[in-house]
Amino acid sequence: MSIIRDTEVLRPSGLLGVGVHRPERSVPNSEIAERTGLDPDWIERRSGIRRRRYAGPDETLLMMATAAAEKALAAAGVPADRIGTVILATITSMEQMPAVAVGVAHRIGATRATAFDISAACAGFCHALALAGDLVRTGRSDHVLVIGAERMTDILDHTDRDTAFLFADGAGAVVVGPTAETGIGPTVWRADGSRNAALKMTAPWHDGTGDRPERLPAITMSGWKVYRWATNELVPAAHEMLERAGVTTDDLDAFIPHQANMLITDFVAEQLGLTGRTAIARDIVTSGNSSAASIPMAMEELLSSGRAPSGGLALLVGFGAGLLFAGQVVRLP
């Protein structure tokens, strides 16, 4: 009987470069207050957000993802024709097919790549990074482009007092490739579908008859339920991520959680006992919550500002609708 041959390559993989696209329009809390009646100072106290980025008409999901991808390739020094796989995490594509990743691969000239989208909400980037790391580690792809891109404003009820002040748009990307030492630690990820009502869409795109609802579906969220779940689950999960990577909090140069809410970030950082030497990502202050794009965008901000060093160790933690989480320790590009 014939035996199927498998790849026998096992090699370290890591992040080679990062790039982002931040939409031009910056929306202050005062503008959100005008249409929701919320106090601007309350918004900042509740979320940490002062401003957030909204995409313009020309800043489509594909355009933003492509722009971030091109910057990541340039930072990594990897030509597009060496990319073997493009993985794009998003929940805001308005077209079920083709995948946005296929369009990105075409636009950047990754003619030898396969490409696909994944949907894991605000934890999508860390899920995609886990897949990319293993593809490179096992030799199935030499280089993988990982993108998180969202136009959250397309699925937002801009008058909803629970969500209108939080969500935003943007894109971030990293190139994953072979490295001399391990640059992506083991991923810890779990999903709890019993809590899916805490963060979901108001309705399906159609009701079973094929008709779209008169009012487009939007995000609905119980912020308190998400907060309680996150503060209960993320600290032990983060400890597991560190333990499986063989590092301690003292080794961390950066903590880069999903930019959901500053209160969650501060709670987890305090419970982990992170000291002043660990840079904590706070990109949410000026970028808002961009779902799957928030972690690579926050990573780029820490590196470009000099708050975290290239080659330093960072703990990434994504979490969101499901409810679910995923994360890993990485070496920064």
CATH class of the largest domain: Alpha Beta
Number of helices: 9
Portion of residues in beta strands equals 15-25%
Profile the largest sheet. 5 strands, mixed
**Name given to the CATH architecture of the largest domain:** 3-Layer(aba) Sandwich
Short description:
The protein is of the alpha/beta class and 333 residues long.
List the helices and strands and how they pair.
Blueprint lengths: L12 E9 L3 E4 H8 L3 H8 L3 E4 L6 H16 L8 E5 L10 H9 L5 E5 L5 H14 L6 E8 L17 E10 L9 E4 L7 E3 L17 E3 L1 H23 L8 E4 L4 H11 L6 E2 L3 H4 L6 H12 L7 E8 L3 E8 L2
Parallel strand pairs: 4-5, 4-6, 11-12, 11-13
Antiparallel strand pairs: 1-7, 2-3, 6-7, 8-14, 9-10, 13-14
Helix pairs in contact: 1-2, 3-4, 6-7
Structural notes for this entry:
There is one protein chain. The protein is α/β, with parallel strands linked by helices and 333 residues long. It has two domains: 13-178, 3-Layer(aba) Sandwich (Peroxisomal Thiolase, Chain A, domain 1), CATH 3.40.47; 188-332, Peroxisomal Thiolase, Chain A, domain 1 (3-Layer(aba) Sandwich), CATH 3.40.47.10. It is built from nine helices and 14 strands. It has helices at residues 29-36, 40-47, 61-76, 100-108, 124-137, 223-245, 262-272, 284-287, 294-305, and strands at 13-21, 25-28, 51-54, 85-89, 114-118, 144-151, 169-178, 188-191, 199-201, 219-221, 254-257, 279-280, 313-320, 324-331. The strands form four sheets. It has a five-stranded mixed sheet, with helices on both faces. A hairpin with a 3-residue loop joins strand 13 (313-320) and strand 14 (324-331). The longest helix has 23 residues, at 223-245. The mean pLDDT is 96.
